């Protein structure tokens, strides 16, 4: 396996930049997930690494080679696609052997590599079957095996689980994670499902509008989002974002609702962050698990009105209107609330996030 490095990679179609100055490094043996909404540039980035489309600028390095001008077959990568791309009339053995036959390897070496890959993926008993005789999960393993037999420098995976049902997707996440662990493989994995990224990846590259927004471990992306887009994209339910004004009263700083007039006093640390806003406006961010609900007015709590209540068994999720924004909160199932009921939401000052109202970037204490 080898490292993969992108340096100021660009892809434009006239004035439209599908990928705009993207730079990140995937270390040897790392599992990196490219995540973001549809049209964010993640699949285009993967195709640029694979050499399936030409770059408009920048460099891509795989191992110790700049591969900008190399054909896909010469880049020493293996791709696993969304639709598996198996040959329907070939047996599993022949599907696995095909890329090795194209490289004109000796028959004995081909058989040894195929049998080794089949053993790793637990598909040895399926070698004589055709793809139509396999389940979705088994077909996925065959697609992985066909990539594995090549012993590539890196695996590139383009939403390989999206065609599976929800239960099988969860099972295959574990399989892919074990596959990576056993082989110490360098993997670049595209997905629109941020839960897949959080559960499997060593690092996440969050993209939006062709631009890399944040590149870090899933824990840091979740816990320290760099802007409101990352905050709202990573996490389920999404982080709640409330636009507020910054007001100062002597040495105290508070947040004021421009629509409803209530104020929320800030701790000294958050006051220093709020004071760094560029125009006196900011966005308050809070995860559902950091909020407390009160049935009556409480100190440090903001008034709201219940919109919807969603019981899920062991936890109840509610959406509350606060200053015109929808706030997600998780509750114990024994807490009884009704739509349109007046409630108050208490924010944890140690776990709230503050973002600049103009730039959308996370604020830091001066």
From TrEMBL:
This is Sugar ABC transporter ATP-binding protein. Residues 4-234 form the ABC transporter domain. Keywords: ATP-binding, Nucleotide-binding, Transport. Belongs to the ABC transporter superfamily. GO terms for molecular function: ATP binding. It comes from Devosia nitrariae. CDD domains: ABC_MalK_N (cd03301).
């Amino acid at each position: 396996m080898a490292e993969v490095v992108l340096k100021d990679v660009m892809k434009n179609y006239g004035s439209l930049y599908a990928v705009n100055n993207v730079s990140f490094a995937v270390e040897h043996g790392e599992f990196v997930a490219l995540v973001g909404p549809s049209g964010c540039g993640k699949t285009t980035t993967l195709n640029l690494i694979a050499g399936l489309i030409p770059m408009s600028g920048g460099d891509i390095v795989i191992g110790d080679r700049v591969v900008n001008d190399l054909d896909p077959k010469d880049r020493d990568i293996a791709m696993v696609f969304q639709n598996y791309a198996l040959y329907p009339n070939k047996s599993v053995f022949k599907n696995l052997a095909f890329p090795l036959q194209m490289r004109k390897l000796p028959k004995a070496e081909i058989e040894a590599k195929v049998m080794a890959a089949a053993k790793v993926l637990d598909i040895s008993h399926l070698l004589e079957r055709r793809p139509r005789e396999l389940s979705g999960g088994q077909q996925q393993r065959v697609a992985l095996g066909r990539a594995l037999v090549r012993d590539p420098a890196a695996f590139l995976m383009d939403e390989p689980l999206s065609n599976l049902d929800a239960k099988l997707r969860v099972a295959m996440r574990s399989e892919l994670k074990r596959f990576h662990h056993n082989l110490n493989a360098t993997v670049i994995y595209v997905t629109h499902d941020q839960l897949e990224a959080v559960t499997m990846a060593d690092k996440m590259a969050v993209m939006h509008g062709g631009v890399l927004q944040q590149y870090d471990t899933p824990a840091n992306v979740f816990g320290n989002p760099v802007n409101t887009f990352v905050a709202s994209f990573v996490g389920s339910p999404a982080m709640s974002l409330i636009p507020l004004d910054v007001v100062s009263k002597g040495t105290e700083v508070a947040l004021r609702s421009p629509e409803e007039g209530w104020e929320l006093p800030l701790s000294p640390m958050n006051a220093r962050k709020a004071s760094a806003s560029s125009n006196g406006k900011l966005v308050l961010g809070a995860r559902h698990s950091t909020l407390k609900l009160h049935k009556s007015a409480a100190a440090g709590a903001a008034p709201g009105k219940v919109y919807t209540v969603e019981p899920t068994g062991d936890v109840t999720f509610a959406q509350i209107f606060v200053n015109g924004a929808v706030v997600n909160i998780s509750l114990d199932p024994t807490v009884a609330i009704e739509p349109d009921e007046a409630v108050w939401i208490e924010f944890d000052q140690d776990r709230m996030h503050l973002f600049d109202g103009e730039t959308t970037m996370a604020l830091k204490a001066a």
